[in-house]
Structure formats: structure tokens, C-alpha cells
Specification:
CATH class of the largest domain: Alpha Beta
Shape: elongated
Number of strands: 12
Number of domains: 2
CATH superfamily of the largest domain: Bordetella uptake gene, domain 1
Order of helices and strands: EHEHEHEHEEHEHEHEHEEHHEH
Helix content: 25-40%
CATH topology of the largest domain: D-Maltodextrin-Binding Protein, domain 2
Number of helices: 11
CATH architecture of the largest domain: 3-Layer(aba) Sandwich
Radius of gyration: 21 Å
Strand order of the largest sheet: 1-3-2-4-11-5-12
Structural class: alpha/beta
Mean pLDDT: 85
Amino acid sequence: MHKGCAKHTGLGTRELPSPPGIGQTRTETRMKTLSLSRRQALALPLALWGAGAGPLALAQGAYPSARAITLVAGFPPGGSTDFIARLLGQKLSEALGQSVVVENRGGANGMVAANAIAAVPPNGYNLLLTSMGMTTNPYLYKEAQRDPVKDFTSIAMLASVPNVVVINPALPAKNLMELLALSRTRATAKKPLTLATTGNAAPGHLASELLQRVANTKFEYVPYKGSGPALTDILAGHVDMSLPTVLAAMPHIKTGKLLAVAVTGSKRSALLPEVPTIAEAGVKELSTGSGWYGLIGPAGMPKDVVDRLSAEVDKIMKSAEVRERFVANGADPMYMSHTEMTAFVAKDFKYWGDVIRAANIKPE
């Protein structure tokens, strides 16, 4: 086993205290620290998570009425999901003239939060900032038997989160095609290039599975608990390559300690405009593979509420300030309406299901 290599263990549900948020002109943040088994946590409806959800009766009259909206983030404080949720919560609060309460409900790769949102009335007062995991979790975990299209209402897509193919500069390859040629040579010699994964079935992992399939090569996967230890071992020469998020790899790319040869997605990353997409670099069959952030609610939300929220998100995502803050946190703005996101999620759900089954990816 390579130095620093570790097999993933399951995600827990214990959370750290969150920094103060903002309400009306600030988003309020309320949190509980819970110690529950995954099964127990996944079974709890949002109403039992504590303060912030408010009454769950169906909305009456104009939306929103004089009550707080709960925006759930499916991961603990401190990461990109938390940042996006707080920024979106603040801007929605300003646009709607109503308090938005950000609730961090981490655990089970976002399934705790998703199951909670799916169980509440579809009145527009309980929303979830979700990610690509909603389309991959059902193929990996028995607890995640929610259909991302039928059991939720897609409201608006916010942004894509590109990954970047990075390698140790000592490798005899300076671009993606040279890297893949080297990979095929090494695989034939039964000494495949080693690729650090930063999360089971995470966007970078799935993109690498696609890459090796369409490029007719084979990588040796080395699992890590996050991008930090993975990148450390690439820098030290213990592992050859990885596909972390652009944000995670940026400091090492800028100093020249890592070489970026391509980014996932259909367009170049705003943080790395000089680095081509995988398709531009020569693998034209691969124009996807990026993660994303979107706003959803429970199935059956009223059309007028969905339309109002989607329209407000559209305005928010056109703000230069918001766009700059998204990009600075590794997320490229990519607004989609309710209809567009619904179609996107349905396509994503089927697409990644095919990839996961073909690669025989199992939960760890």
C-alpha cells in the first residue's frame, strides 16, 4: 500500500458548531450536535431536527408568508457546500424579504438531509442545497432509495464544480494525450499508473472511470480520505495522478508542484482558463464529469412557489458579486430553470448509474 493510502470509512453524522450566520439581512444558523447511527439519522424527518423548520402545514396565501424558510446543507460547516448554502441563503433572504435559516445536516454523503427534505410537506419552506450525490447515492447505498426526479422538486441549478487531471511533474508526460499514451504503455507492462481517489463515487472518481474507459487504458486506484492526503502523496511521488476539484489543487498548480493537463466539464474552469477541457485535450467523447450544486425541495411543490424561487435564483446568479464569490470557491456559475434542471437530473441519474454499474463501484 502506498504511503498515506487509507480505505474510506463511512461518513458520520456528528457535526461541529457553525459560525454565526445572517438573518433578514443575515441568514440565521441553528444547529444540533447529534450522535445517531446512520439508519436512525436517515429515518428522522426534518421536523425532528430541532429549531428552524417552523410549522409544517401547507402554505396559505402569498409566498413567502411571515415565517422563516429553512435551507438545508447536506454537509458539515466549513466546506464548499456550506459556503454556497450561506451565500444563497443570504441572497434569497434579501430577495424574498424573509428570514432564511441555514441548517447543516451532514451525514451519509448527503442522504440524511435528502431523506429529511423528502419527508416534509411541499410548501416551499423547507429547501435543500444538493449536489451530484443525489443522482449517485441510490446506486451505492440501500438507505438512499429516493428517486432524484420523482421524490424531489428541482427548483434551479446554481453551478458546476469542475475537477482537474493533475499529475506529478516528474512523469514523462506534459499533456493529456501523452499521459494516456504513457498509461496504456504502463498498463500493458502490468505497471499501471496509480490514481488517487478522494471519495468513493465522487465526481473525480467517476470522471476517471469514464476517462480510462473511453481512452482504452487502466489505472490502479488508490483510495484516500479527501484531497489533502491524496495531493500530498502525489507531490511526494507516491502516487502518479488524481482528479481533485480545481479549488483543492489550485495552490499546487500555481506553484508548479502539480501539472494540470485537463479539466472536466463542457467548458474551461474560470480558475484555470489556460487549461483545456478533457474534450479539447483530445478525448472528445468525454465532455462531462463535473460535480454541481442545485436547489431542490420535496416532490409536489406548487408551481407558483417553484417559479418564484427559480426566478429569484436566476437574478442572484446574474449578480457579478455572487458569480465572483462562486468562482473563488471553485464553483462555476451554471444557472438552469426548474424545467432544465429536472431534465438534467433525470439524464444525470441514468448516466451515472450506467457508469457505476459498468465499473462495479461498491460502497465502502
